[in-house]
Design a protein that fits this description.
2 domains; 12 strands; alpha+beta
Amino acid sequence: MGGFELDDKGYVIGVLSFLLIIPSIILLIVVVDMINFDESSNIMIKSDTSFHISGDVERNIPLITMQVLKESAEEVVKTGDSIPNSRIVLKNIVESRMNNLNANYKNNTGVTAKCIIKSLDSASDPFELEINSSISVTKDNISYKRDISQKISILGLNPTKRASGQFKSYYDIPDPLPFIKCKNYGGVNVSGGRINYGSSLSNYLRKTGLNESNSYDNASSPLYIKKCPYDPYTSHGNSKFSTLKNCIENGYYHESSDGACFLCRLEGRSVCSHYGFETFITPSGYHNQTLLRAPCSIDHVIFNDKTYHGIYPGEAVEYYTKENETFIIFLDNGHKTKYGLKSFENSGVFVN
């Protein structure tokens, strides 16, 4: 009986000991889970930080690119010097500025962010550029990388906001082409958002030996690139040319398969293989208008001194009369048709 009692007590003690061990096991499991959770949370925080910083880098690319485009165009306006290989030059400038900005992330958060600009080129929309980039973000052993393609507008405010006169966009980008072309012919002046040519455009045309070069004395054209809102373009001929008048006075640009794209304009080219745009170069008002033909008033025609067709003529289109002053532009048959104006049969080639 005594032995039995001892064994029974041992059994009880064993059970009690096991029960005492269970809390310790549970506590150990909880501690291990907490350690794992802390490590997982740390990884998640690092990953989340990397993801958000990559988003910041992506959002900064269009802003930096717009700044570079504006500053580059303004430098051409100031100096009249073209930017050869503009696509490569501007791509490198954007990449350098992006990585200077990204260095702040390393200093502030320990995150290494890099941005490689693969290309900067014309887009299918001539009022946009396409920039292709590779973004990589790294913190400790956590990394995030992806390739992106973005469209960058070269336009400032849209025409409806601009028309109110109460807004001015920081990113209004000037057209660099006239400043390059007229640099050696007297230069141009800028006033009220327009380029005033004085005698420089007539001097430029005269060097080609064309007749009626004086028809562009004191001519003007838009300073800033603004997309024409009148669609289709044939509507310019509506309401006794009032749409054409409004377009010219607001200085709008139009899509064109013949006109140069923005990047090629920075290089001083009036025509290129890319889908580009065009605008009107308007002569000053005439008194007792008798001139019927002169170089076509489209910018890529007037500045085209290097292709087979060169500068060709246009016929006078009177779009506005004020008292005894007549305002006209000269358009060829193709551009008359494009803008919904009455077409005419070309009466011959433009002679020297």
